[in-house]
Amino acid sequence: MIRIFQQDETAVRKVRDIDSFSDTERTLWVDLQNPSREETKSVEDKFDVNFQSQQEQAEIESSSRYIEEDDFLIANSNFLIPDKEHMYVTVPVSFMLKDDTLFTYRNADLRSFADTVKKIKSRRSVFNDGAQILITIFESRIDHDADLIEMVSQEIKAINRKLDLDAALDREMLLKINDYQELTMSIRENVVDKQRVISAMIRSDGWFTNDEQQRLRTLIKDINSLIDHTNFIFERLEFLQNTFLGLIDLEQNRIVKIFTVVSLVFLPPTLLASIWGMNFTNMPELSWQFGYPLALTSIVLSSLVTLWIFRRKNWL
């Protein structure tokens, strides 16, 4: 899919048919989403650009994440999208600035792009070049990352309340804590990736105006705040995991204590029964008239005395 946003005298209009498109000078933004080879080739020929391969877009080296030349600028960044199997997954997005036109290449439907389109439609006079659209996309993405971090924080509070109120500890809760640890790690990696790209954009030579540079510096401050927040969430998740494991240890100790008490309670009766169960000839108790009732009474009393000692010492 190809979306072309072109500025005219009164509005910003969207064009989808690139074959009938001819006026490239007033183009603000060319967005390629899941493009075919033919669509990519037509954009490259029409605007005289060359997109990186998907492998190059996913490279993590600094030299691959940000490339600045005299006539174009390339910035690659990772965006998080929801996924049914893994909660969230990372997808690469490539940005290119050339002649005040922004080119974006992505293989997923991203909310930050949709929000940017809405802003362009509602505030057409604000967007005069591709750099402003590029910054708006990053601003929207950082806002979504902040919302995602807030969602994780609320889920942590819910798990913490469940640990306090619910005595039943299960495997699913521990797996949920682990999932949120992985999600927080992914958020931090993506935020740090944007920090690297935006820092490089601030240091760029002549690609952004003073007002746009100020917006980029504000983004860096927001990103630093998000990084601090993710560090705090990591600490909370680690504390929550330790609390969960500690409660499991307490539950296991309680079960072991019950088995230990039961074993000790039956230890004196077992000793008495073992003594009186020996088959020796000279055992006077065997000829006693009340030997059997006395033996039963001794066995019961030995158990009761053991229980009384345990309660007296607060071991039960």
From TrEMBL:
<dbReference type="InterPro" id="IPR004488">
    <property type="entry name" value="Mg/Co-transport_prot_CorA"/>
</dbReference>
<keyword id="KW-0812">Transmembrane</keyword>
<keyword id="KW-0406">Ion transport</keyword>
<feature type="transmembrane region" description="Helical">
    <location>
        <begin position="290"/>
        <end position="310"/>
    </location>
</feature>
<keyword id="KW-0460">Magnesium</keyword>
<comment type="function">
    <text>Mediates influx of magnesium ions.</text>
</comment>
<protein>
    <recommendedName>
        <fullName>Magnesium transport protein CorA</fullName>
    </recommendedName>
</protein>
<feature type="transmembrane region" description="Helical">
    <location>
        <begin position="258"/>
        <end position="278"/>
    </location>
</feature>
<keyword id="KW-1003">Cell membrane</keyword>
<keyword id="KW-0472">Membrane</keyword>
<keyword id="KW-1133">Transmembrane helix</keyword>
<keyword id="KW-0997">Cell inner membrane</keyword>
<dbReference type="InterPro" id="IPR045861">
    <property type="entry name" value="CorA_cytoplasmic_dom"/>
</dbReference>
<dbReference type="GO" id="GO:0015087">
    <property type="term" value="F:cobalt ion transmembrane transporter activity"/>
</dbReference>
<dbReference type="GO" id="GO:0005886">
    <property type="term" value="C:plasma membrane"/>
</dbReference>
<keyword id="KW-0813">Transport</keyword>
<dbReference type="InterPro" id="IPR002523">
    <property type="entry name" value="MgTranspt_CorA/ZnTranspt_ZntB"/>
</dbReference>
<dbReference type="InterPro" id="IPR050829">
    <property type="entry name" value="CorA_MIT"/>
</dbReference>
<dbReference type="Pfam" id="PF01544">
    <property type="entry name" value="CorA"/>
</dbReference>
<dbReference type="GO" id="GO:0015095">
    <property type="term" value="F:magnesium ion transmembrane transporter activity"/>
</dbReference>
<dbReference type="InterPro" id="IPR045863">
    <property type="entry name" value="CorA_TM1_TM2"/>
</dbReference>
<comment type="similarity">
    <text>Belongs to the CorA metal ion transporter (MIT) (TC 1.A.35) family.</text>
</comment>
<dbReference type="GO" id="GO:0015099">
    <property type="term" value="F:nickel cation transmembrane transporter activity"/>
</dbReference>
